[in-house]
Design brief:
This protein is an alpha+beta fold. It is 24% helix and 29% strand. The protein is built from 6 helices and 14 strands. The strands form 3 sheets. The chain has an 8-stranded mixed beta sheet with strand order 8-9-10-11-12-7-13-14. It has a 4-stranded antiparallel beta sheet with strand order 1-4-6-5. A hairpin with a 2-residue loop joins strand 9 and strand 10. The longest helix has 15 residues.
């Protein structure tokens, strides 16, 4: 954690632990290790904002970053909002969803959201365990006692089509998790949610939308490269990644 000393003095007081090695969730036949902030510490949004600038991510109350012994495949990525240029496909998605309206809500348990989450999980991850999340587990995935989190809804008239769980940081927004109606796949709701988060960051005069980790070899993460320009954290600084070929 040499980088924490040059980013923010707030991080000097934090303690970090390494997880045991475990099977990698993204690449076959690989093991993974993460470093995470001591969960017993009392954290604040300021801590997370500083940690996000050096590639950390949150899951519920846990703040972590991949720290694998022989692998650096996980690259933290973010979109510089002012420089973002939508592709032709992204412009088509935006036009196809002009009939949707955006609603911003504070984090709370909403039956309608939970029902959509369950449908999404049963469609995308059948038999994976997450498709059986109970309300308490669902809220632990979404919420955190220290984060400034909002729920960005996309609705067609009164029908809920998507929810993007979004954290507000000092310099941007962080896309935590998005779930949407599997029966409306033709709308490109995952892409539309990111476009809406970029727009919201711009409206709030925030510089970045953090997208978590990108892995070149992971096909399901390729969508992140379609948002350009895209910056990646190399362990020392944020650098612009080359466009996907």
């Amino acid at each position: 954690m040499n980088d924490r000393q040059t980013i923010h003095p707030l991080l000097d007081k934090l303690q970090f632990f390494a997880s045991p090695e475990h099977p990698c969730s993204y690449l076959e036949n690989r093991t993974a290790t993460s470093i995470f902030v001591d969960p017993s510490l009392l954290l604040t949004p300021q801590h997370y904002s500083a940690l996000a600038t050096i590639g950390f991510r949150r899951s519920g109350n846990y703040i972590y970053r991949p720290h694998c012994r022989n692998c650096r495949a996980c690259v933290p990525v973010r979109i510089p909002v002012e420089q973002f240029q939508p592709t032709r496909s992204q412009r088509r998605t935006r036009r196809a969803n002009e009939d949707l309206h955006r609603v911003i809500r504070p984090v709370e348990f909403i039956d309608e959201h939970y029902a959509l989450y369950r449908r999404y999980m049963q469609h995308r991850h059948p038999g994976g365990g997450m498709d059986e999340d109970d309300p308490d587990t669902y809220m632990r995935v979404l919420d955190s006692y220290w984060a400034n989190t909002e729920l960005l809804e996309l609705r067609h008239q009164q029908q809920l089509l998507a929810v993007a769980v979004t954290d507000r940081l000092a310099d941007g927004l962080s896309a935590v998790y998005t779930f949407f109606d599997p029966d409306a796949a033709q709308r490109g709701l995952g892409t539309q949610a990111i476009l809406q988060q970029i727009e919201l960051a711009h409206e709030r005069q925030l510089s970045y939308l953090y997208l978590g980790y990108w892995i070149r070899e992971s096909e399901k993460m390729n969508y992140k490269r379609r948002f350009q320009p895209l910056e990646g954290y190399d362990g020392r600084q944020w650098v612009q990644l080359e466009k996907a070929g």
